[in-house]
Amino acid sequence: MLGMIAAKTRRGKRHFWECACLRVRMRSSDASSGNLYWGKIIGALTGAATLKPWFVLLGLLLGHQFDRGFAARSRGFDSRTADLGRLPEDFVKPLFQSMGHLSKCDGRVLEAEIRAVRTIMHRLGLSPAEVRKAIHWFEEGKRTDFPLAQAASGMKRRVGRKPELRSIYVRLLLEVALAKEHIDKKERGLLWTICKALDVGRVELAQLEAMIRAQKNFRHSPAGDADARRVSQAYRALGIRESASNDDIKRAYRRLMNKNHPDKIAAGNPTEEDIARAERRTREIRGAYEMLKARRSIR
Questions:
Q1: What CA–CA distance (Å, rounded) separates 154 from 280?
Q2: Tens digit of pLDDT for each residue in 246-255?
Q3: Percent of the chain scored above 90 by pLDDT?
């Protein structure tokens, strides 16, 4: 292993770090808690391959900087993924067509992939009519002759100089691909075809995959379960379903605050117990709204 890493080093620092990122993507389940360490391990091993102690320290330093940057990007990534808002149809159509093609390329579409696609429909805020369109586009993409690379090239022309939209496009495709346990070789090759057409490099692709895997692992951890319960409780506090839109959440919050705020019940000569109950309920409503506002990037 040391010989392989040393060989990578001799080919140049940039190529080495691309390879390092590809190894990190499969081992980043601690990203959500900030306990990243693979950059430091790879850096130290690379330094050790030179048999010079100073290079070991240099490798550790570079690896530490990589881990810090990756952790910061992971936190930003997590805050942006709760609610994507509205995207134009010329973005959504090739997106769902590509999802259909990637899901079908290994022979059959799994239930986990369908659930992931449905979740993305919700996060995009699609109306019932738009959902039907998205399902139709998904079915179109399942054809073996669907021009995947052409669709990605068209997407590049549409998003122009907006790298964040290219990143969102790849990220959503990855979320569907990673809904199942493994990405097979053919599907990974198609993903790379899309990335090349969009000028998304291997490092960015590896980082996106690592962050999605970290989120997935967090959701299945005890901390993730507790977090999910708090979010569910917030929806219940506002009396709405998790499928509610951002506008529905705002309306529920305003309606409940108008009904329960102590100032609103003052005209009815409330008792001290009534006021205390109203204050508790107001705090509960406000706390639930603030949590959902942060999770779903409600403005």
A1: 53
A2: 888 999 999 9
A3: 25
